[in-house]
Amino acid sequence: MPLGAWNADHARRYADGRDRLSNLIAEAQQLGDLPDGDTADLAAALQSFVLGLTVQALIDLTAFPPERQIAMVDEHLATLAGPARGSRRSAPHALT
Fold first, then answer.
1. Which of 78, 1, 77, 20 is nearest to 46 (CA)?
2. What was the pLDDT predicted at 8?
3. DSSP per residue over 20-48, as a string?
4. Residue 56: closest CA among 79, 72, 76, 74
5. How far is CA 77 from CA 1, 13, 14, 35, in A?
6. What is the rounded distance in angstroms from the CA atom of residue 28 to the CA atom of residue 5?
7. Kindly report the CA angle at 15 between 63 and 50, in degrees rounded to 5?
8. Could you give the 3-state DSSP secondary structure of residue 75?
C-alpha cells in the first residue's frame, strides 16, 4: 500500500475512534458524569492522552504496567469530571 493511502486509512481509523469517544462523552454529559463542553475537543484530548500513554507503555512496560495505565486513565477521567461529578461514578472505567 502506498504511504499516502496508508496515512489516509490510519487517519480515518483515528477519526472514527474520536467519533466513538465523542458519542460516549455526550452520553456521560447527559448523565451528569462529565461537564458540558465540546465533545469533539474532549474526545481529541482523551484520545491524545491515551495514545501518549500507549507509547510510554510500549517504551517501558515495567514503568507502565496495565494496572498503572488503567489507574492513570481513571484519574484522567475523574479530573475531567471534576470533584462533584467524580463522586457519582459507581465504578472505574465509566466510559468503557
1. 77
2. 87
3. HHHHHHHHHHHHTSS-S--HHHHHHHHHH
4. 72
5. 37, 23, 20, 11
6. 35
7. 15
8. helix
Q: Grid coordinates representing 64?
A: 507502565
Categorise residue 7: left if φ over 0, alpha if ψ from -120 to 50, beta otherwise. alpha
C-alpha cell at 12: 480515518
Q: For 32-89, how does the pLDDT look when each residue is reduced to its tens digit (9 = 90+)?
A: 989 999 999 999 999 999 999 999 999 999 999 999 999 999 999 888 888 755 444 4
Q: Is the pLDDT of residue 2 over 70?
A: no
Within a 13 Å sphere around the CA of 24, how many CA atoms are in the beta-carbon half? 16
Average pLDDT over residues 9-24: 95
Q: At what angle do helices 66-86 and 39-59 cross, to 10 degrees?
A: 150
| Domain range summary for the chain, segments of one domain joined by + | 3-86
Tell me the C-alpha distance between 8 and 17, whole Å: 14
